[in-house]
Specification:
- By secondary structure, the protein is of the alpha/beta class.
- It has one domain: HAD superfamily/HAD-like (Rossmann fold, 3-Layer(aba) Sandwich), CATH 3.40.50.1000.
- It contains 6 helices and 6 strands.
- The protein has a 6-stranded parallel beta sheet with strand order 1-6-5-2-3-4, sandwiched between helices.
- The mean pLDDT is 90.
- It holds the Pfam family HAD_2.
- GO terms for molecular function: phosphatidylglycerophosphatase activity.
- One of its GO terms (cellular component) is cytoplasm.
- This is Haloacid dehalogenase.
């Protein structure tokens, strides 16, 4: 297994930095997005004004947004139902089950979708396995739930190997 399986296609500061225009330039018509620490802070289920504006902009432009989360249905539904976002729960990233389910359920073409997440070990790896483009974002908050803390330790080792081979990942304000 090569380190390139964990290398994101793009790296941006936050999912909210994705604009309708930049997605369009890359032929992206759907965004699969991780929930915790990507779309919302894991400890702030109500989201932010910035998140609501981003979702509104995407919806107005006809860009499909689907949350793909490893969390339970109860947790994901509670977090997204007030925003009217479609979701796939218990997605088992880094495996492709959740991504595959989202693509099929919402009739999304692999060429027109991107997976956005804050973890190399789950989000980026699952995107590569599924054959879709990936965007790494910085976590919204620097402290994680216990499950994620375990992944972050492994992720630091992978990040070190990526930096040795490719140099540091450069986070930009858009794609």
């Amino acid at each position: 297994m090569g380190i390139e399986n964990y290398m994101p296609d793009f790296a941006i500061e936050a999912v909210y930095d994705l604009t309708v225009e930049s997605l369009g330039k890359h032929g992206i018509r759907a965004v699969l997005v991780d929930l915790d620490n990507t779309l919302i802070a894991w400890n702030n289920p109500d989201g932010t004004k910035e998140m609501r504006q981003w979702l509104h902009d995407m919806r107005d432009a006809g860009v499909k947004v689907v949350v793909v989360s490893n969390n339970t249905q109860k947790r994901v539904r509670r977090a997204v139902e007030r925003f009217g976002i479609d979701y796939v729960y218990w997605s088992l990233k880094p495996f492709t089950f959740g991504i595959d389910r989202a693509l099929k359920k919402f009739s999304i073409d692999k060429q027109e979708v991107v997976m956005v997440g804050d973890q190399l070990m789950t989000d980026i790896r699952a995107a590569h396995r599924a054959g879709i483009r990936s965007i790494l974002v910085k976590p919204l908050v620097q402290h994680d739930s216990l499950n994620t803390q375990i992944n972050r330790a492994r992720e630091r080792r992978v990040l070190k190997r990526i930096q040795e081979k490719y140099g540091p990942i450069q986070f930009t304000k858009g794609i």
